[in-house]
Write a structure and sequence with these properties.
The protein has about 425 residues and is α/β, with parallel strands linked by helices. About 30% of the residues lie in helices and about 25% in strands. β13, α11 and β14 form a beta-alpha-beta unit. The structure holds ligand DWN, S-adenosyl-L-homocysteine and zinc ion.
C-alpha cells in the first residue's frame, strides 16, 4: 500500500517454508498495547506492520516479528473481563468443555493466554483441575486473586514439557485470541504434542481471515495478530505438525472468529463442518493476490474518508473524542494519523490504561465516568466489536445529541 514496490528479500512461511508474498503495508507502527506515561519514560518501540500470504499453504502472516517480551510484559494492560459480552461468551465456552470433554475421572485443562481468568473462572468454580499459562504477570495476578491456578510464563515446547512432568497429560488445551499471537507456532505444536493426552483436544479461537476481509476489519491487523487464520491454513498447519483439524465453528465475537478443534491424527473423526467450511473458502480467493489488492484499496478508501470526515468536523468547531483504547485502534490511529489534534481523549474502562497516552498517537486515555462531563459532539468508536454494550451503557450521549462515528465496514455516522 505504500507504493514502494516489491521488497528485495524473499520471505519464508513460518509453517511450510513456502514463499510469502507481501500484500499489505501499514508502515511504521508502535507496540499496540504499550501505553505511554505522560511524564515521559522509556522510548517507544516501532516496527513495520506488513502482511503477506504464503503462496504454498496460504497462511497469512506478518513479515516483521515484534519480540514477544516487547508485547507481553508484566504490565500488559488488556483485561478480558472488561466486557460483559466476553464474560458470557467464555462462561458458555467453559460450560461446553465441562459437559462435553471434562467428564472423566480427575480431568485436567490447560489454558494458553488465560489473562485475568475470564474462561478458567467457571472451570475453577466447578472444582476441575486446571492451569492457566500467561506471561502477563499483572493479569495473571488478577486471576490468582479469584482462586485460579496460573503459571506466569510463555507457553512453548519447554514450558509444556514442564507442565506435563508436574501435572500429567491435559485432556483439553484451550486458547482464545492467543495462538494467532505466537510467531513460533512450531514450538506451540510440539508443546501440545508433549502435553496433550492421546485422545485429548487442542481447542483455539481466533479471528477469521474471511470475516476480516469481507467486513474490512483492517484494524484486526496489529503486532499481536501475527497470523490471520483461515480454515484452509489451519487445516494444513495441523497436518504439518502431526495433527488434524477435526472441527471448526464460526463465532460472532470480535467481528468474526473460528473455534478450531485439533486432535492427534486419526484420534477423532472430523466433523462435516470442516469439509463444508473448506469448500466454502475455495470461492473466497484467500490464496490469491487480487483478493488482498481489493482489500488494500478498501483500507485506503476508509483511511481517506475517515481523516477527511474528522478534519471537516474539527474545522467546523465540533469536539471529537474516541471510545475504547483497543489494541486495534493503534493501527487506525497511526495509519490514519489521528492524534490529539483531532481527537481530544479516548474513554476506556480499563484502570491500567487510564491516565496514560495511546501508543504512537499519544491521545490521553480517560475513565468513562468523564465522558459525560460534558458530552462531546462526536465519538469515534474504536471498540466497534462492543458497540451494542457500549451504546447501551452510554445511551445518554445520543440523547444529548451526540453521534457515533464508525469506520468499519465503511465510514458512517450513527
Ligand atoms: O486479541 C486480543 C483481544 C482479545 O484483546 C488481544 N490481542 C488484545 C485485545 O484486543 P482489543 O484491545 O482490540 O480488544 P477489545 O476487546 O476490543 O477491547 C475493548 C476495549 O474497550 C478495552 O480496553 C475495554 C474497553 N471497553 C470499555 O471501555 N467499555 C470495553 C467495553 C465492553 C466497555 O463497555
Ligand atoms: N484469552 C483472553 C486473552 C487474550 S489477550 C481473551 O480471549 O480475551 C492474549 C493473551 O495471551 C495475553 O494475556 C498474553 O499475555 C498472552 N500470551 C501471549 N503469548 C503467550 C504465550 N506464548 N503463552 C501464553 N500466553 C501468551
Ligand atoms: Zn506456508
Amino acid at each position: 500500500m505504500s507504493g514502494e514496490g516489491v521488497p528485495p528479500t524473499v520471505n519464508r512461511c513460518r509453517v511450510c517454508d513456502g514463499e510469502v508474498q507481501e500484500c499489505l503495508d501499514f508502515g511504521r507502527q508502535p507496540v499496540s498495547s504499550a501505553f505511554v506515561d505522560p511524564d515521559g519514560g522509556g522510548a517507544e518501540v516501532f516496527y513495520r506492520l506488513a502482511v503477506g500470504f504464503c503462496t504454498t499453504c496460504t497462511l497469512v502472516q506478518q513479515l516483521e516479528e515484534v519480540p514477544r517480551d516487547a508485547m507481553f510484559r508484566v504490565d500488559y494492560p488488556y483485561r478480558s473481563s472488561e466486557s460483559a459480552l466476553m464474560r458470557k461468551h467464555f462462561e458458555q465456552t467453559a460450560r461446553h468443555l465441562l459437559e462435553s470433554e471434562l467428564t472423566g475421572p480427575d480431568p485436567f485443562v490447560v489454558e494458553v493466554g488465560s489473562n485475568d481468568g475470564i474462561m478458567l473462572q467457571t472451570v475453577a468454580d466447578a472444582g476441575i483441575r486446571h492451569l492457566g499459562v500467561d506471561p502477563s504477570r499483572d493479569a495473571a495476578e488478577t486471576a490468582r486473586d479469584k482462586g485460579i491456578q496460573v503459571q506466569v510464563e510463555f507457553f512453548e515446547e519447554a514450558s509444556a514439557r514442564r507442565i506435563r512432568a508436574a501435572h500429567g497429560p491435559a485432556d483439553v488445551i484451550f486458547s482464545a485470541n492467543t495462538i494467532s499471537h505466537i510467531a513460533y507456532i512450531d514450538s506451540i505444536f510440539r508443546g501440545v504434542d508433549a502435553l496433550l493426552a492421546p485422545t485429548g483436544i487442542f481447542v483455539f479461537e481466533d479471528r477469521y481471515l474471511a470475516d476480516i476481509i469481507e467486513h474490512n476489519y483492517f484494524d484486526q491487523i496489529y503486532d499481536e495478530h501475527f497470523y490471520l487464520f483461515s480454515i484452509h491454513s489451519v487445516h494444513s498447519m495441523a497436518e504439518r505438525f502431526g495433527f488434524e483439524l477435526v472441527d471448526a465453528e464460526r463465532l460472532t465475537v470480535h467481528g468474526g472468529a473460528v473455534r478450531f478443534t485439533v486432535a492427534r491424527t486419526g484420534a477423532r473423526r472430523p466433523s462435516a463442518a470442516v469439509a463444508e467450511l473448506l469448500a466454502r473458502e475455495q470461492e473466497l480467493g484467500l490464496g490469491e493476490a487480487v483478493t488482498y489488492e481489493r482489500f488494500a484499496s478498501h483500507i485506503l478508501r476508509t483511511r481517506d474518508e475517515l481523516t477527511a470526515l474528522l478534519r471537516d468536523l474539527r474545522s467546523k468547531g465540533h469536539r471529537i473524542v474516541a471510545y475504547g483504547a483497543t489494541a486495534k485502534s493503534a493501527t487506525v490511529a497511526n495509519f490514519c494519523d489521528i492524534g490529539p489534534d483531532l481527537v481530544d481523549a479516548v474513554y476506556d474502562s480499563t484502570p491500567e490504561k487510564q491516565g496514560r497516552l495511546t501508543p504512537g498517537s499519544h491521545i490521553p486515555v480517560r475513565p468513562p465516568q468523564e465522558f459525560a462531563a460534558p458530552y462531546p459532539d462526536y465519538a469515534l468508536l474504536f471498540a466497534w466489536n462492543h458497540a451494542e454494550e457500549i451504546m447501551a451503557k452510554e445511551r445518554g450521549f445520543r440523547e444529548h445529541g451526540g453521534r457515533w462515528i464508525m469506520y468499519v465496514p465503511d465510514v458512517h455516522i450513527v
